[in-house]
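Suppose a colleague, Dr. K., hands you the sequence of a protein chain of 375 amino acids and asks what its three-dimensional shape might be. Before reaching for any lab equipment, you can write down a predicted structure in C-alpha cell form. Begin with the sequence itself:
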Amino acid sequence: MKLKTMLLATTLIAAPLIAAPLSSQAQTFNPPPVTGPYVSFGGGGNFLQNEHIVGANGNTSDASLASHFGGVAVGALGYGLGNGLRLEFEGDYRHNGFSSGKNFGYPAGAGGGETKFGPMFNVVYDLTGLIPSFPYVAPYAGVGVGYQWTRLNSFHTYNDATGFPRQFSDDSRGALAYQAIIGAVIPFRFLPQLATTIEYRFLGTADRSYDATVETAPGVADTNGRVKLGNDFNHALLIGIRYDFGAPTPPPPAAPSPVAVPAPAAARSYLVFFDWDKATLTDRARAIVKEAADNSTRVQYTRIEVNGYTDTSGTPRYNVGLSERRARAVAGELIRDGVPQNAIDIHGLGETHLLVSTGPGVREPQNRRVEIIVR
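The predicted structure, expressed as C-alpha cells, is then:
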C-alpha cells in the first residue's frame, strides 16, 4: 500500500476516535493560553493546485499539471509563552500523484507524483481572548517559514495522441516555503493535557528546476533536459492531537480550605469584582477598596483578609494563579490607601466558594471577585 493511501486510511480510521471526546465537551472550560512545552501530531488530506510549467525565458507558460488528492502528515514541537503566542518547530510530509497535463498544445497525459517534506518554523497565536464567543474550543491562527524538499517520483508527461514529445524525471530539489494556519483545539474534559486539533493549512513553495530526459521522437532523447515547475500551492485539512506538558492534571476533590472560614458577625466585608480573565482594578473597584481602607481606620481590627476568587472558565491551576493576582492587586491598592502591609493576609482561592453555583466552564461575573474582610 502506498504511503499516501496509508495516511488517508489512518486519518479516516482515527478521526472518530480522536473526535470521540467532543460529545462530552458541553461542560468544558474555556482553555487558557498554552504555557510551556507541547507536542502535536496531525494527518489528513491535501489538494495541490495545478502547477504551471515555466518556459525557457522564465515566463510561466499556459501548460500545467493537474494532480490527485493526496495525504499529509505533520508533527511539531512547540512552546507556549503564556500570553497567547506559541512558537513551533515542525516537520511535514505531503504527496500527490499527477493526473494529466493541461494546455500543452496537444492532448497531454501525465503520471508519477510529487513528494514534499521538510522543516518549518511557525508563530501561532491563540485567539481565545480575542474571540470570547467560543466557549468550548480555542481557535488559533499562525504563519510559518521554512524549507521543503520536493521530489518528482517517476514523473512523466507525453503526447496522448502520438506518444511524443515525452519527458521523464526522478529528481529532487529544495525551495523556500511559507504557510498559513487556521485551526482550533478542543481539550479533553477529564485530561486537559490532551486535546483534539482541527486545522486548515496553506503551504506555498518557490519555483524548482529539475533534471529531466526529453524525447522529441523515437530514439531522439536529450538526457540533459530540464523541467521547471512554478509556484507550488497546497491546501490541507488535518485532524490531530496535542499534548501540553504545562497543563495541570485534574486535582482530587478539594478538602474544605482552612483559610476560608466564614467571617464572624462582627467582621465587615467588601466585594470587588473583575472583568473576565483580568486582574486590573476598575474605577468602581478602586472606590470600594478606598471605602474599605477608610472604614478600617474607624474600627479596631486584628487582621484584614484579602481573598481572591475566579469563575470556572479556566483550569484549576490557572484559576489559582489568577485569583492570587487579583488579591495582590487589591492588597496593593489598600496599602496605597493607608492600610499597613503587615496587617493584610492575601489568599488566592481559585474557583472555590462560588457566590453563584455553576458547572465547569461558566463565565459568571459574580464569581470573579476579591473579598476584603476586616476582622
